[in-house]
């Protein structure tokens, strides 16, 4: 190749360079501009040549900028580099990275200038976008940090103990309350199995197996698990407290990552419960004795034990007796309700013939049935087996359903009692031709102390507790109760429960 | 009124109106009736008078009914081991019922559930008078 590079090669290189290149004379008048100048600025070569850059695309920067530029290139004869804003012919503003320098002759005199610019608008835009994103991320980070701080404050101020474990049951975090109860700080037990710091026992003091702990149940079932009546024994402090536990699985993208164990110290609640139970038992003793006494004396008077009464005396005394009996029933019902509400009632299954219980209850109600001339139909499936049932509970169910049917049916009505076996279940229905339950009362019929409007005038003897108790008992033994009713036509209550009977449940109190 | 029944009944009950109701009722029925107001008095009377049957309240001051029966069972008097007792209670309190059934063949009845007439029937049944 020729060592002397041909002028035409230089010219072509400059002409087609990707950067904007202009050459001016010593006063700044442009006498050369390459192709890209037209492309970037939108001015034609004819418009450009013979003009100053400042008249075309320049002149947007503050005056000092240009003063400084001229000083650098003209006086100091150095290259000036900077970022500046220019204007295209169509008015668009663009950002250019600009390098301007003097062209010197053999005597180092300035004979002109060369300006090279790169349109960096796109780059600028990208940079700006990145900057915005950065800002956004910083803000987001701040928000998250705030949230995290809030969550942490929340978690540490909660009175419940919180321990989170991974899938293997190793501790991954705990709140200060849990630290306090457990008796050590988090970093001492990080990654240690939860069973190494807390033992769980049931009421009877049996140690709960690992897989039966609520937290492992939550991990294995992927479901929130609640547990009352367990005791936490903190191995380090050797302290045992009754707790209610809620274990929630941590699920990320459908996969269990671990679980959170939230536990509350129930010591105080249990004390209050006990105080309530004691109060109920004392109150019942106090209330029942005088009422029983009244009943017995009234019975003796009515039986003529101490002399015959005249008709009016008898009539009055019958009212006294009715009132006193009603009070007895109310006290019994209230006692049962409080036992349900306290969750302390016991179930004591004994081999039981349900049909006999139904017959017994009908016998007890025979006087009222006779008075109202109600016809009782009994349809019993003879194949009903003797099954383990708590007789007290079954009696309460029949007593309430049958006495309600009799109570809320007019004279000469019909009450039909059916006991059947249906597959694995015992099904009982008590149907009457009575007043029925009004539409607006149906929803509330099992609510405590609720009595429908249509029967309040017809029948004073009712306390609104019977069906509440019945439903609670049936649900406790895993059965179902529902009804059909139409006003002035009658009501049918249906009950089903397993033919296997009831399971024994220890509790503080049997039903009264 | 019903003619004399040659049986002695001890009623132990701290609630005076209830005690009087029972004493009057059983007296009218022709029983010989002894009464006591607490477990201590009841124990003394039982060991002294050897009644045929004791109607025994559970919750009482000084000595409760269950303790009284335990003492009777443990006493040197061999009579104390075969005594017939019907417990009277106001509560179907499971712990009490369990204690009662541990003490042998004794029965209990919940006062508020029973008419006084039925208490008489129960006693007569127990003594095989009916």
* Average residue-wise pLDDT of chain A: 87
Structural class of chain A: alpha+beta
Beta content of chain B: 15-25%
Number of separate strands of chain B:
5
Please indicate the percent range of residues of chain A in DSSP E strands (runs of 2 or more): 25-35%
Give the helix tally of chain B: 6
Our measurement of the CA-to-CA distance between the termini of chain A, rounded to an integer number of angstroms, reads 120 Å
Relative helix content of chain B: 40-55%
What percent of the residues of chain A sit in helical stretches (DSSP H or I)? 40-55%
Average of the residue pLDDT scores of chain B: 84
Per the principal axes of the C-alpha atoms, what is the gross shape of chain A? elongated
Low-confidence stretches of chain A: none
Strand order of the largest sheet of chain B: 2-1-3-4-5
The low-pLDDT segments of chain B are none
* Biggest chain contact: A-B, 28 and 21 residues
* Rg on CA atoms of chain A, Å: 47 Å
Radius of gyration of chain B: 14 Å
CATH architecture of chain B: 3-Layer(aba) Sandwich
Shape, per Cα inertia axes of chain B? globular
Please, could you describe this protein's structure?
The complex is a heterodimer of chains A (512) and B (130). Chain A has 512 residues and is of the alpha+beta class. Chain A contains 17 helices and 18 strands. In chain A, the strands form four sheets. In chain A, strands 7-6-11-10-9-8 form a six-stranded antiparallel sheet. A five-stranded antiparallel sheet of chain A has the order 2-1-5-4-3, sandwiched between helices. Chain A is elongated and about 155 Å long. The N and C termini of chain A lie far apart (120 Å). With 130 residues, chain B is an alpha/beta fold. Chain B has a single domain (8-117), classed as 3-Layer(aba) Sandwich (Rossmann fold). In chain B, strands 2-1-3-4-5 form a five-stranded parallel sheet, sandwiched between helices. In chain B, strand 4 (85-89), helix 5 (94-102) and strand 5 (107-110) form a beta-alpha-beta unit. Chain B is globular and about 35 Å long. The model of chain B has no long low-confidence stretch (mean pLDDT 84). Classes of the chains: A alpha+beta (512), B alpha/beta (130). The A-B interface holds A 281, 284-285, 288-293, 295-297, 299-300, 303, 305, 328, 331-332, 346, 348, 392, 507-512 and B 15, 17-18, 21-22, 24-25, 28, 59, 90-94, 97, 110-112, 115-117.
């Amino acid at each position: 190749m020729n060592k002397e590079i041909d002028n035409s090669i230089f010219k072509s290189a400059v002409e087609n360079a990707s950067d904007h290149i202009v050459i001016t004379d010593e006063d700044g008048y442009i006498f050369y501009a390459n192709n890209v100048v037209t492309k970037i600025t939108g001015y034609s070569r004819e418009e450009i040549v013979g003009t100053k850059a400042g008249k075309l695309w320049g002149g947007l920067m503050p005056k000092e900028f240009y003063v400084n530029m001229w000083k650098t290139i003209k006086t100091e004869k150095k290259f000036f580099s900077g970022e500046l804003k220019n204007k295209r012919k169509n008015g668009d503003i663009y950002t250019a990275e600009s390098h301007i320098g003097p062209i010197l002759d053999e005597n180092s005199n300035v004979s002109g200038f060369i300006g090279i610019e790169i349109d960096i608008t796109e780059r600028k835009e990208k940079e700006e976008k990145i900057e915005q994103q950065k800002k956004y991320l910083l803000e987001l980070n701040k928000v998250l940090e705030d949230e995290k701080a809030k969550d942490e404050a929340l978690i540490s101020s909660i009175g419940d103990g919180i321990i989170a474990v991974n899938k293997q049951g190793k501790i991954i975090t705990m709140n200060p309350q849990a630290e306090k109860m457990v008796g050590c700080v988090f970093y001492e037990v990080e990654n240690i199995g939860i069973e190494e710091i807390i033992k769980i026992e049931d009421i009877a003091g049996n140690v709960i197996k690992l897989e039966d702990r609520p937290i492992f149940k939550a991990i294995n079932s992927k479901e929130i698990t609640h547990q009352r009546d367990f005791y936490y024994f903190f191995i380090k402090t050797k302290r045992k407290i009754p707790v209610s536990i809620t274990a929630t699985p941590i699920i990320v993208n459908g996969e269990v990552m671990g679980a959170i164990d939230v536990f509350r110290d129930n010591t105080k609640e249990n004390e209050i419960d006990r105080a309530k139970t004691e109060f109920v038992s004392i109150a019942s003793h106090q209330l029942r004795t005088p009422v029983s006494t009244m009943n017995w004396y009234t019975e003796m008077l009515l039986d003529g034990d101490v002399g015959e009464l005249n008709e009016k005396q008898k009539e009055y005394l019958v009212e006294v007796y009715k009132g006193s009996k009603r009070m007895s029933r109310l006290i019994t019902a209230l006692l049962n309700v409080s036992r349900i509400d306290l969750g302390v009632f016991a179930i004591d299954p004994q081999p039981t013939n349900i049909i006999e219980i139904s017959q017994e209850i009908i016998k007890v109600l025979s006087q009222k049935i006779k008075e109202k001339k109600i016809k009782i139909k009994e349809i019993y499936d003879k194949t009903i087996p003797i099954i383990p049932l708590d007789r007290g509970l079954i009696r309460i169910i029949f007593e309430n359903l049958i006495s309600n049917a009799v109570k809320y049916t007019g004279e000469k009505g019909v009450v039909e009692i059916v006991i059947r076996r249906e597959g694995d279940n015992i099904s009982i229905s008590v149907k009457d031709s009575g007043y029925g339950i009004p539409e607006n009362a149906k929803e509330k019929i099992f609510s405590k102390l609720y009595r429908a409007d249509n029967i309040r005038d017809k029948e004073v003897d009712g306390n609104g507790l019977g069906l509440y108790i019945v439903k609670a008992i049936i649900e406790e033994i895993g059965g179902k109760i529902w009804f059909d009713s139409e006003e002035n036509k009658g009501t049918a209550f249906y009950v089903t429960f397993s033919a296997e009977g009831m399971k024994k449940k220890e509790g503080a109190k049997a039903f009264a | 009124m019903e003619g004399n029944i040659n049986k002695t009944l001890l009623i132990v009950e701290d609630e005076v109106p209830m005690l009087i109701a029972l004493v009057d009722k059983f007296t009218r029925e022709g029983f010989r009736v002894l009464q006591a107001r607490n477990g201590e008095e009841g124990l003394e009377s039982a060991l002294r008078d050897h009644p045929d049957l004791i109607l025994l309240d559970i919750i009482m001051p000084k000595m409760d009914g269950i303790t009284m029966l335990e003492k009777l069972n443990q006493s040197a008097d061999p009579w104390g081991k075969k005594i017939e007792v019907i417990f009277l209670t106001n509560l179907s309190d499971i712990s009490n019922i369990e204690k009662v059934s541990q003490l042998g063949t004794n029965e209990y009845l919940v006062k508020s559930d029973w008419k006084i007439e039925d208490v008489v029937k129960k006693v007569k049944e127990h003594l095989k008078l009916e």
